[in-house]
Write a structure and sequence with these properties.
It is a single chain. The chain is an alpha+beta fold. The protein is 28% helix and 23% strand. The chain has helices at 2-12, 23-37, 44-53, 63-74, 80-83, 89-92, 119-125, 162-168, 184-187, 272-283, 317-320, 328-335; strands spanning 101-106, 109-112, 115-117, 129-136, 146-151, 154-155, 174-178, 196-204, 207-217, 232-235, 246-248, 252-255, 291-298, 304-310. The strands form three sheets. The chain has a seven-stranded antiparallel sheet with strand order 3-2-1-7-4-5-6. Strands 10-9-8-13-14 form a five-stranded antiparallel sheet.
């Protein structure tokens, strides 16, 4: 809880606009939460996101409440690490269109096209590769993701050998994936990164609610689209169009166009309805998790493809200008009576 408060409040001073909550706004927030959970909440997130967006709403959700109490009530906490491993994607969602992994390293063991191989065999099999992506299988926020190719055992990453590249990842828990060739309308936002749609879904019994969706766009020359890695994000309307402004990191606000010059407001994303349909179908296959974040790309042919899912997703409260929008009260009221799974099992 202290970590989340520190992470937000230390960046507050870098905001261009620092807005304080009025007594009436503070009362509105506390009345809202006290009625749902029986106690007051810290106001640092309401103040921070109000300052960033210029939009006040009682429905911002304090990050410490969300990550320390709501997520463990929604999701089986002890399953998080195993299910978030990107190497498990095709095992957990058979029959779905997920990004193809050429090589996997799981707990130090190598698998090439699904077959177990030795490290020496893995190095040999990766001796010549067209541009591919390598990334850690258990990390997040875009760290360690690299685009590279290999010719005669030498990578395009500063002349490293394949063996040296594997050693950079400590020969453990990483994967090499095919590069997704994205739809031209997605590539127009930034051609060097696969620009993904982050969809947050919530399962309530037999119903899957789409809490919100945002698009994540890389900056010029970047391989990743993650906001913490310099990318930008903005909300998507229910008909698949982009919001007026985007946000980057913890303090870059009011971005109105991409590095490629595309104006965000009203930009139509391709196949958005297909992406939503896919997420609803896939979420039903994950019974231990009621809140899931999905990163979906749109291929050249217009079909959605899953890049990864997150069983401990953050909230895009700047881009969405709310915590969980119209579903905030419903979700909190449904989750609050449940036991905290950190202390179960």
């Amino acid at each position: 809880m202290r970590k989340w408060k520190f992470r937000i409040t230390k960046n507050f001073k870098d905001l261009e606009h620092r807005r304080k909550l009025s007594p009436a706004q503070k009362k509105e927030v506390q009345d809202f939460y006290k009625d749902m959970i029986g106690k007051k909440v810290p106001l640092y997130c309401h103040e921070f996101f109000y300052s960033r967006t210029g939009v006040f709403t009682k429905e911002y959700v304090p990050n410490n409440l969300y990550h320390c109490e709501l997520i463990p009530k929604a999701n089986r906490f002890r399953f998080l690490d195993a299910y978030r491993d990107k190497n498990m994607l095709d095992f957990l969602l058979p029959g779905e269109n997920v990004v193809h992994s050429i090589l996997k390293n799981m707990n130090g063991y190598y698998y090439f096209e699904g077959k177990p191989v030795t490290e020496e065999e893995a190095i040999s099999l990766c001796r010549n590769l067209e541009p591919v992506i390598i990334k850690p299988s258990r990390n997040s926020e875009g760290h360690g993701i690299q685009l590279f190719s290999v010719k005669d055992g030498i990578t395009s990453l500063g002349g490293k050998t394949v063996k040296q590249l594997f050693a950079d990842y400590k020969n453990k828990d990483f994967l090499i994936q095919e590069v997704v060739r994205q739809h031209p309308d997605m590539a127009a936002l930034n051609p060097t990164s696969v620009n993904t749609i982050r969809i947050l879904s919530y399962r309530s019994g037999m119903e899957i609610l789409i809490v919100y969706s945002v698009v994540r766009i890389g900056h010029k020359g970047a391989v990743v689209d993650n906001q913490m890695a310099g990318g930008i994000s903005t909300a998507i309307t229910k008909d698949g169009k982009l919001d007026k402004v985007a946000f980057s990191g913890f303090s870059k606000d009011d971005i109105v166009k991409t590095d490629t010059g595309v104006v965000l407001e009203g930009y139509q994303l391709p196949s958005y309805d297909k992406a939503i349909e896919m997420v609803k179908r896939m979420h039903m296959k994950l019974p231990f998790f009621n809140i899931v974040g999905w990163d979906v790309a749109i291929q050249e042919d217009g079909e959605p493809i899953l890049i990864e899912f997150n069983t401990n997703p953050g909230l895009s409260q700047s881009a969405f200008k709310s915590g969980m929008g119209e579903y905030t009260e419903r979700i909190i009221r449904e989750l609050w009576p449940r036991p905290n799974s950190r202390f179960m099992d």
